[in-house]
Specification:
By secondary structure, this protein is α+β, with helices and mostly antiparallel strands. It is 23% helix and 27% strand. The chain is built from three helices and four strands. Helix 2 links the parallel strand 3 and strand 4. The longest helix has 12 residues. It starts with 8 loop residues before the first helix and ends in a 21-residue tail after the last helix. The model has no long low-confidence stretch (mean pLDDT 92).
Length: 113
Amino acid sequence: AGWPNAPTAASLLRVLRNSALTIVAWEGDEVIGFVNALSDGELAAYIPLLEVKREHRHQGIASELVRRVMEHFSGVYMIDAVCDDDVVPFYEGLGMSRLNGMALRNRASGILR
């Protein structure tokens, strides 16, 4: 939700399969949310995607997904997430701090429709 051009289902599945960690929230046989993390397993972990279906938000699902990532990578030096300003309070509530960051987006990569 909220993507100007969402990834295709096939590309999203490849992203999740190639991640160091993927955690999926289910309701019955329906996926209602997921988080993935990239990591070297020693120094750093990065949370690139955290998604919960709109109708399942504000129920603690996203918080639980991030907590599980943080628990899994509790031995690494840093766990980072890049997010929009409106999501900062969510991550701060989980103990994260605002930092400066830089990014390059290759919009021609083909991952987005």
